[in-house]
């Protein structure tokens, strides 16, 4: 396939140039030479599938983020916030990848970090000041970390109805490459000379000014990405592909900064018994995504979860008020101060579960996507062995670049404890800020 593009390159002389610059500084003659971004774009084509992996990464980023409803989901934007009504928690975090800002490298690893605040439905207190002194409520805040490996996806052009798709895309590339070659030559002949003169004059006063080499790299990447964006726009607006597919695996860990305290019975000398819970959580998941040009997409996820919990959380028990009375030597009844505690035998254990989940989306034009999401959770390996389920209606809203920016899901859940089963209707919301790609 590269042989075909070599012939194409020969047939298009306007494209055959490379970016070559000569910088005559005080230290003598220095030549800064870079391969044309057009040549680089063509050389990055997959020999078998005939698509550019970096273009595929950008395309994939626009699709995958709409399934984000929790911190253990994959999303490629730099910053995010998540409000989880089920956990009554708020999470804020960030992402960075293994390309370190270079779009010319393939995307393989995504690293995520942030903080989660847990509390009541209205607030999450992690610092308290009172007459008894100031205290840090580490049990209400913690840090989470996640690593995701993204596999090698594919962009499939084949179709029994549109057999000429790949030829049409080849023809479109022939049309747009000269446009970007003119952009390269304009930069070579005009902008570069001005930048070189500007840098030479300012370098006498500012030794930390951005070097010409770094500016050339930046311009090279900008034009390269513009070519990828142009091709994406063409194949998406004209349905010039059959489907896009990719898969990824993730592992994440949540570590609170302190233990949760539970006051339970028995009450001895008018004091309840104190028990601790370290509610850490870890997840491992295998995920897949396929999106068709007709505007339909499907996400699949198999998640293993383990974390600390107790019977009070699972049964959703509430505190009760306890008071005792004694008669003194003068026959006066003395009532003790009210004490609030859980009337239960405290049981701490590691909860484990396996949860398969599907998310089906239909595109709503430039507005966003609407979907349907069933999930079932099997608990095992501990005293808690209940089966829970969820039915959700997810919505995903796009930003001006066509990427997911606001996601929310209306959920109907059944969650069982040791003694009762509860049904809930609520909303989980996530906000994505900033572009990683």
Helix segment count? 6
What is the CA-CA span between the terminal residues? Answer: 27 Å
Q: Structural class, judged by helices and strands?
A: alpha+beta
Uncertain runs: 1-31, 121-136
Question: What series of H and E elements makes up the topology?
Answer: HEEHHEEEEEEEHHEEEEEHEEEEEEEEE
| Approximate shape | elongated
The largest sheet has its strands arranged as: 3-4-5-8-10-13-14-19-20-21-22-23
Instruction: Estimate the mean pLDDT confidence.
Output: 78
What would your notes on this structure say?
- The longest helix has about 40 residues, at about 165-200.
- The chain has six helices and 23 strands.
- It is of the alpha+beta class and about 425 residues long.
- The strands form six sheets. Strands 3-4-5-8-10-13-14-19-20-21-22-23 form a twelve-stranded antiparallel barrel.
- It has helices spanning about 1-10, 35-45, 55-65, 165-200, 210-235, 310-315; strands at about 20-25, 30-35, 80-85, 90-95, 110-120, 125-130, 135, 140-150, 155, 245-255, 260-270, 270-275, 280-290, 295-310, 320, 325, 335, 340, 350-365, 370-380, 385-400, 405-415, 420-435.
């Amino acid at each position: 396939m590269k042989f075909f593009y070599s012939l194409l390159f020969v047939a298009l002389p306007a494209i055959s140039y490379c970016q070559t610059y000569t910088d005559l500084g005080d230290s003598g003659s220095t030549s800064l030479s870079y391969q044309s971004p057009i040549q680089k774009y063509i050389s990055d084509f997959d020999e078998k599938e005939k698509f550019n992996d970096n273009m595929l990464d950008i395309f994939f980023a626009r699709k995958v983020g709409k399934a984000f409803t929790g911190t253990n989901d994959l999303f490629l934007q730099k910053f995010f916030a998540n409000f989880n009504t089920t956990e009554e928690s708020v999470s804020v975090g960030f992402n960075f990848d293994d390309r370190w800002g270079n779009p010319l490298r393939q995307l393989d690893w995504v690293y995520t970090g942030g903080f989660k605040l847990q509390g009541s439905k209205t607030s999450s207190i992690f610092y308290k000041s009172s007459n008894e002194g100031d205290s840090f409520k580490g049990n209400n805040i913690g840090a989470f970390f996640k690593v995701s490996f993204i596999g090698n996806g594919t962009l499939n052009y084949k179709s029994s109805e549109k057999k000429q798709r790949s030829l049409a895309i080849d023809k479109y590339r022939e049309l747009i490459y000269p446009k970007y070659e003119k952009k390269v030559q304009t930069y070579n002949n005009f902008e570069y000379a001005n930048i070189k003169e500007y840098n030479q004059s300012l370098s006498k006063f500012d030794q930390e000014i951005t070097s010409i080499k770094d500016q050339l790299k930046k311009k090279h990447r900008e034009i390269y990405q513009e070519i990828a964006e142009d091709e994406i726009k063409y194949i998406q607006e004209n349905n010039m592909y059959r489907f896009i597919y990719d898969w990824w695996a993730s592992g994440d860990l949540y570590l609170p900064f302190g233990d949760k305290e539970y006051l339970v019975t028995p009450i001895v000398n008018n004091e309840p018994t104190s028990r601790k819970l370290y509610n850490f959580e870890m997840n491992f998941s295998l995920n897949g995504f396929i999106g068709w040009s007709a505007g339909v997409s499907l996400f699949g996820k198999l998640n293993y979860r383990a974390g600390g919990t107790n019977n009070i959380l699972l049964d959703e028990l509430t505190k009760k008020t306890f008071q005792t009375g004694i008669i003194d030597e003068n026959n006066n009844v003395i009532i003790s101060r009210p004490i609030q505690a859980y009337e239960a035998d405290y049981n701490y254990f590691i909860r484990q579960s396996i949860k398969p989940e599907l998310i089906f989306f239909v595109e709503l034009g430039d507005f966003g996507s609407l979907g349907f999401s069933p999930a079932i959770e099997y608990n095992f390996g501990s005293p808690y062995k209940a089966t829970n389920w969820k039915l959700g209606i997810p919505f995903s809203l796009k930003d001006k670049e066509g990427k997911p920016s606001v996601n929310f899901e209306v959920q109907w859940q059944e969650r069982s404890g040791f003694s009762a089963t509860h049904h809930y209707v609520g909303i989980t919301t996530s906000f994505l800020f900033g572009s990683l790609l």
